[in-house]
Amino acid sequence: MDWTYLVIWFLSLSVSECRQPSDSLLDVEVQSPQYPQPYSPNLLRKWDLWVPDGYKIQLSLTHLDIKASPGCDHDSLTVLNDEKVLGKFCGQENSTGKEPIISQGNRLTLIFQTSDFDAELQQHVGFSAISKAIDMDECSQSDPGDDSSPICSQICINSPGSYRCSCHRGYKLHLDKSTCLISCGRQTFDKHEGHLASPRYPHPSPPSLSCKYIISVEPRFNITLNFTDSFHIDSTDTEQGPRCLHHWLQVTIPNREPMKLCGAKSPGLIDTNSNTVTLEYHTDVEGLSRGWSLDYGTSVIDCGEPEPLLNGGVTFLTDFQNQYGSVVQYHCNEPFYTLPGGKNVTFTCDANGKWSSNHNDVALTCVPVCGQPTKLISTYQRIIGGSDAPQDTIPWQVLLNVDGRRAAGMVIGDRWIMTAASELTHGGEPVSEDTVRIYMGSSDIETLLGCPVFAASIHVHPEYNNPNLVNFNNDIALIKLQDPITFNSSVMPICLPAEDATYDTGLLG
Ligand SMILES: *[C@@H]1O[C@H](CO)[C@@H](O)[C@H](O)[C@H]1NC(C)=O
Ligand SMILES: *[C@@H]1O[C@H](CO)[C@@H](O)[C@H](O)[C@H]1NC(C)=O
Ligand SMILES: *[C@@H]1O[C@H](CO)[C@@H](O)[C@H](O)[C@H]1NC(C)=O
Ligand SMILES: *[C@@H]1O[C@H](CO)[C@@H](O)[C@H](O)[C@H]1NC(C)=O
Ligand SMILES: *[C@@H]1O[C@H](CO)[C@@H](O)[C@H](O)[C@H]1NC(C)=O
């Protein structure tokens, strides 16, 4: 006990006596005037005793010698606690065996009163008492009787002049210094699986909770929350439907809108596709939530197979397969296709389980390479007097069969053949696409005819008008193929001129 810390003093407000505050807890003697000489008549003397908060006064009468009268009506010593009389004394008594008087609070009043008598015949000496400050054991105080709660909701620790409250494990002392609240401030979970539940689950959740749970595992992992069926978080019916107004469990996954859960339906499984998730459980003094519990598990993030690339391919640069951190590179089937800009496009399996690109502006398409035959013709000649074109030197050249007539065309795209409008009209009308067959990929006619390609539609220039075969203006038409062609050394598009290109006459085409 640290007695030096405790200060006690007594004040006497009696008519004559005025004690200075004392700075010690020493016992204080209070005596009737002139004690141990006989007291005088017609006295009315009052002592107010007080000690600091947290202490009580223990008053021991060491000697009492007051003229006795019925009900001590004449001469008396009265001890009061506030207005309440604790005892009225007269007669003769020793302290021996007498219980001391203990104040309820930290104050006690003594009143010594004597009657009108002949002082010469008076032999009574009055009283002598010892008053001391004793520690009040706040902890053992019974309930004040009104319905108020005990001074400490869990553990009470008495100390001289004071007391303090403490809480069991898992609880923390509220700001009011007496109530114990569930301690759920901030808990972090870093194991690959675990269990979380609302405080006191399966019992209802206490009010005024503000709990935060953080699940955080290595970036390779993906957290899945599995709520059990018994789920109940108070929700409030509003005009807009049920709302999580007073109680909620907020689930926050990085880069996503947080979700507030409440109601009586278990959310079941939540795939976070993330390696961190924060849960915040809030209750206030209104409403009642029966609580929730969940198991969480983790699995390695898997981005799935990377998207295939038409006329190209994808290569794994790491050996994690489709898992987090894996890097793949896309390429086009050279030399017939190329990636626009010729960029080295890699994708990485990210923490969100997505393949994310190093060039996020790239449209991943393999563009056909035009006009680059793998074999070149060494001599150029007019058709008249010409010679056979070696295989693969004019890979855009196709043979057309239009309703039994032969014609020629060229590949300009993977679905498009360009030819003359005069080849695709009959009597001024476009022929039906059913009558058209396209042959490509070989300079050997036998081989060529073995494998026709079919037309999906015919598009004749709208201003081509040559019913009598005299006006060959706008003599151009397109055939759309039913299926796209995959280019190779034998089939490749010719390059179209630029949109605004002009040509001088007399040049070799
Ligand atoms: C009070 O105590 C004294 C000695 O301590 C004794 O002589 C006396 O008789 C006692 N008086 C009464 C009234 O008990
Ligand atoms: C979720 O938990 C339930 C038990 O509450 C269990 O039966 C079920 O298999 C779990 N689901 C997953 C995907 O772990
Ligand atoms: C995360 O785990 C869940 C459950 O195992 C799974 O369904 C989901 O595809 C995983 N997500 C990723 C990105 O791997
Ligand atoms: C593309 O990436 C591959 C492999 O990472 C590398 O060998 C090649 O040099 C790169 N090409 C360019 C143009 O950066
Ligand atoms: C080239 O492509 C054409 C059209 O798809 C096909 O008919 C031909 O067999 C292919 N040639 C080679 C050498 O792959």
Itemize the secondary structure elements and their pairings.
Elements: E1 28-31, E2 44-50, E3 55-66, E4 76-81, E5 84-89, E6 91-94, E7 101-102, E8 107-113, E9 126-135, E10 155-159, E11 162-166, E12 171-173, E13 180-182, E14 187-189, E15 194-197, E16 210-216, E17 221-227, E18 236-238, E19 241-243, E20 248-252, E21 259-261, E22 269-271, E23 276-282, E24 293-300, E25 312-316, E26 327-332, E27 337-338, E28 345-349, E29 355-357, E30 367-368, E31 397-402, E32 405-413, E33 416-419, E34 425-426, E35 429-430, E36 436-439, H1 445-449, E37 453-460, E38 477-481
The chain binds 2-acetamido-2-deoxy-beta-D-glucopyranose (5 copies).
Residues 222, 224, 271, 273, 299, 301-302, 353 line the site of one 2-acetamido-2-deoxy-beta-D-glucopyranose (NAG).
Q: CATH superfamily of the largest domain, called what?
A: Spermadhesin, CUB domain
What is the alpha-carbon Rg in Å? Answer: 52 Å
- How many structural domains can be distinguished in the coordinates? 5
Mean pLDDT score = 86
Q: State the total count of DSSP E strands.
A: 38
How do the strands line up in the largest sheet? 31-32-33-38-37-36
What is the CATH class name of the largest domain?
Mainly Beta
Question: What is the CATH topology classification name of the largest domain?
Answer: Jelly Rolls
Terminal CA distance reads 113 Å
Helical run tally:
1
CATH architecture descriptor text of the largest domain: Sandwich
Ions, cofactors and other ligands present here are: 2-acetamido-2-deoxy-beta-D-glucopyranose
Overall 3D geometry?
rod-shaped
Helix content: under 10%
Task: Describe the oligomeric state of these chains in a short phrase.
Answer: single chain
